[in-house]
Predict the structure.
Amino acid sequence: MTGANRVQVPGSLSRHSRKTGLSEARASRGLEQFFFNLRDSVGLTLLDLAVPNQDNINFLTNLGHRLYTADLVGCLDDAFGQNPADQTNTGRIEYFLRNALDYPPETFDGVLLWDGLQFMGPALLTATVDRLYEIMRTDAYLLAFVTSNERVTEVPAHSFRIVDNKNIMISERGMRSSGQVFNNRNIEKLFGKFQSVKFFLTRESLREIIVRK
């Protein structure tokens, strides 16, 4: 069953070239802001909601933090398949939340959400953000990516590899149905419980979002 994994063993930070295959490292204002807000701290508890990859694990644990991982999109497919229209069933929503985000309240100092929100319909999206709010500590930060194109019904899924605290490699890994339109107003409403929301537009037509609880 797809679910959460606890990763707490530090490894050696791997070296990155500026370009690997079709993936090119580029600056990320959202990532820079995320790590800037964690600066001078060690022993924090972070949640990485992507398919686990060793580069990210090594980078985050070498900073001295405790890392938990969960494949959010994998949990999404396990619970609903790839059709956002099926994401209204209360029982399936609870099943998804147990698989992906079953943590005690106020567990995390930072969450790397990546692009998983793009593939959720309204009911599941609201439930997921509410659960994230519960499991984040006060003043914790969250980084998310959503499409800036408001007229599409399919969007590319991406993989994200951290190069350093300012640069990231982003590569496409197939198209998926978009759960709903994301514009600035909708995003601000979605994160209405949180203290602040900031946006950065990228060249991949993605909005980088930094949210502070």
Observations:
- The chain has one domain: 26-212.
